[in-house]
Amino acid sequence: MELIETAFGILASGLRLAVPLLCACLAGLYSERSGVVDIGLEGKMLASAFAATVTALSVGSALAGMVVGLATAVVLAVVHGYAAISQRGNQIVSGMAINMLAAGLTALLGNAWFKEGGRTPSLEGAQRFHAIDLPLVEVIGTIPVLGPFYRTVLSGHPLPAYIALAAVPLTWFLLYRTRWGLRLRAVGENPGAVDTAGISVTALRYSAVVACGLMCGLGGAYLAVAQAASFLPNMTAGKGFIALAALIFAKWRPVQALGACLLFGLLDAVAIRLQGVALPGIGQVPVQAIQALPYILTVILLAGFVGRAIPPKAIGVPYVKER
């Protein structure tokens, strides 16, 4: 029973660590399905985390912080869209500019306002999201195996985590069961054909970029206002780039993206669990090697187990309307 509880604890930790990856992965899915490369996921998440934390500290409401975080990420997403779609600029350069702007500006403002080296004071009470118990957790929790799984793994997560999980079936429905999703997938493959049908390529791509901003904002708000309960400089720690790797691993599909992010989150949880543990025949592994484990396994998985991942044909190519 103790082994089961330990396994469920690792699964719950993996799920919590997978949430920001999932948000960024779905964000990239919306953007890249429309043909717009976005490596600025990291910057938008970081800016959202900072804005959400500052707002929650000022207003005293975690929900208000999340709303401002969403708005901040959407603004940066529209800036990227203006550079990549309207001005037909280099999408990689634009995304990197957003990453550098967010990393520098959040640290600068954090240090100027709070005098704590760029970090903010800890969020308390209503300023942060707390764990939510799912219905009937006490009743179902008494059932062997299923009960601990429901109580430990599925229940006890903050509101943004459940919103992120609900975004997976919503994204699938929008992409594969709505006219907007059909057009979005088409514009990522052949924008000329979409334009010939009298549909605005620019409007479709901007709508995808805004959806990308919303998901990045949710991930950033979760990181700061739910998981860490404060803002730390560069607290995203490469999650935006790992999410892009997960997106390739999932072959730009929402359900597979959930599986990929859960896998990477579980690898991260196992790496944390192994810190300070002596392995049989090896001894205690250095902390640096354990911390590098998720990234090493990410490279191995992408190199050997993905197979051929075919991106949208028009990805990264600015559309020029034919006259």
Helix content: over 70%
Euclidean distance between termini CA atoms: 70 Å
In the CATH hierarchy, the third-tier topology is known as ABC transporter involved in vitamin B12 uptake, BtuC
Question: What percent of residues are in strands?
Answer: under 5%
Q: What are the low-pLDDT stretches, counting only 5+ consecutive residues below 50? A: none
The count of helical stretches stands at 13
Q: What order do the SSEs take from the amino end to the carboxyl end, as H and E? A: HHHHHHHHHHHHEEH
Mean pLDDT: 89
Task: Tell me the name of the CATH class.
Answer: Mainly Alpha
Whole-number tally of structural domains: 1
Q: What structural class do helix, strand and pairing data support? A: mainly alpha
Identify the CATH architecture.
Answer: Orthogonal Bundle
Describe the fold and architecture.
The protein is built from 13 helices and 2 strands, in the order ααααααααααααββα. By secondary structure, it is mainly α. The protein has a single domain, classed as ABC transporter involved in vitamin B12 uptake, BtuC (Orthogonal Bundle), CATH 1.10.3470. Strands 1-2 form a two-stranded antiparallel ribbon. The longest helix is centred in the first third of the chain and has 32 residues, at 2-33. The termini are far apart.
